[in-house]
Amino acid sequence: MKVVVIVITYNCAELAPFFLRHYEKIADEIAIFDDASTDGTREIFSAHPKVLLRDWPHPGSGIDETLFLDFIYATYPTAANHAFDWVIVVDSDEFIYAHDVRAVLQTALNDGIDVIQTQGMNMLGARFPVDDGRQIWEIHPLGMPSGIYSKPCVLRPSVNVKWSRGR
């Protein structure tokens, strides 16, 4: 089973180590599209062996939802050409969690499930977590359900998904 994570970033150096630590255990490849970050984000991501760092094709536009939807509709199906079984499309501050995400994905693949609807949560903490080598969800294990973050972001590359703004 092969898994790719696709993310668009901009100036997320503080969060990048948590993102990489989390997704390196899940993904075979992490495709990062960076919008000309200036805070060290590019350097952090480019140093990771699973990361394919690319430039966001609309520099300076910010993370515009319409541009993002156009981009992701064109990008995520190409994962099928690279024999990926799962595509995870997230923002740099979104962490897909289950006790063993790869086991969940393998079971879903075996059962013929094509899209996994996530239950979004807002993490709670008194301050931004200090990177001490743990997972972000170990530092801030509390959260509240959030409908806006509950979205189909784990899917097979052959699925014809129709997202709306905010996905």
Brief descriptors of the model:
alpha/beta; 167 residues; 22% strand; six-stranded mixed beta sheet; 5 helices; two-stranded antiparallel ribbon
Helicity level? 10-25%
Secondary structure: number of strands: 8
Overall mean pLDDT: 87
Query: What is the general shape?
Result: globular
Question: What's the arrangement of strands in the largest beta sheet?
Answer: 3-2-1-4-8-5
Q: Over the alpha carbons, how many angstroms does the gyration radius reach?
A: 15 Å
Distance between the termini: 25 Å
The biggest beta sheet is recorded as:
6 strands, mixed
Low-confidence stretches: none
Describe the structure.
The protein is α/β, with parallel strands linked by helices. It has 5 helices and 8 strands. The chain has a 6-stranded mixed β-sheet. Strands 6-7 form a two-stranded antiparallel sheet. Strand 1, helix 1 and strand 2 form a beta-alpha-beta unit.
Structure in a nutshell:
By secondary structure, this protein is of the alpha/beta class. 23% of the residues lie in helices and 22% in strands.
Write the layout of secondary structure elements.
Elements: E1 3-9, H1 16-23, E2 29-34, H2 41-46, E3 51-55, H3 65-75, E4 86-89, H4 101-110, E5 115-117, E6 121-124, H5 136-139, E7 142-145, E8 152-155
Parallel strand pairs: 1-2, 1-4, 2-3
Antiparallel strand pairs: 4-8, 5-8, 6-7
